[in-house]
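User: What would this chain look like folded?
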Amino acid sequence: MTAPQKPATRPSNPNFSSGPCAKRPGWYPTALADALVGRSHRSKPGKARINDVMAKSRALLGLPDDYRIGIVPASDTGAVEMALWSMFGARGVDLLAWESFGAGWVTDVVKQLKLSDTRTLDAPYGALPDLSRVDFNRDVVFTWNGTTSGVCVPNGDWIPADRDGLTICDATSAAFAMDLPWDKLDVTTYSWQKVLGGEAQHGVLILSPRAVERLESYTPPWPLPKIFRMTKGGKLNEGIFKGETINTPSMLAVEDALDALNWAEQIGGLPALMARTRANLTAVEDWVTRTDWVDFLAGDPASRSSTSICLKVVADWFTALPEDAQAKAAKRMVALLDEEGVAFDVGAYRDAPAGLRLWGGATVETDDMEALLPWLDWAAATVQAEMASA
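Assistant: Here's the prediction, encoded as structure tokens.
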């Protein structure tokens, strides 16, 4: 079997990683020239920068006026953990898991917090659990978009408005790319490193009035480390949501987030971000339709992610291989793409089935996504040829 010919066109930007993700188009380090490095984050200009990031985020996301938004430590993970450790134990918990990070929240609640009244509703990679089984008299934890499976909830219709429990939503790869129904979400978390293409390290925590009420009316029985504490004297520490961060943030990361938000405003705000993301998924969908060796990991188009686009190899030469050989073949495809400099970091997540994962968020140009796809054909054909001649 002869080696296939390489495509003539290359993506201008080969960064298709699912986190940290591609910077916004045209980004260069000079965008951070005005960062307040060497200045205190508690100085008047430092605090103003932080509040500017939060104000622009609030406006772009369309948050209700009575929702709080603040910067917290340890990226999206830290934001989720703050909610779990500060609010849980007041009632039973339903945990939804259909990919790696959702499974991680199950572990934290069941094995670390050791709550006794929990239910886990799970599904294999590529599917959603039965959302009709969720009991909203209980607290509910879920990822809006499964970054490692490419499966997202289709909408918020399954969440009742008159629920008694809280909804805790890990939206790290959905915020700024998908339409989030804020009236259905009590705690929402994300990080700048996903759809905004910002730098990692910090998380964003959004609280509804119902979440604030829980914090002020319930004290968990376990000790809370300083970075998890959101109340003082039984009342919400409002400073966290007014630029007074719990610990010292990177002013370079703050400046980078501000740059990404300014770009988002300039191109048309949330509708434009969502449209750019959707265009990337459409490009991949059109290619998959005419390509016989690959398919989406997400079985139902209604729950197919437009940001973390996960693909599986369905060609006979691949599916006939043992599982370890499939993983090796998929890694070889990823290595070929990396060696050619056309796509970096596009392997499936370590816990997911062997395959490819392409980031399709708003900072990725659709022209680059379209230029990448023939290279995926080339990589698959090359691996097949190598195996045939081995």
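The longest helix spans residues 366-389. If you want, I can go into more detail on any region.
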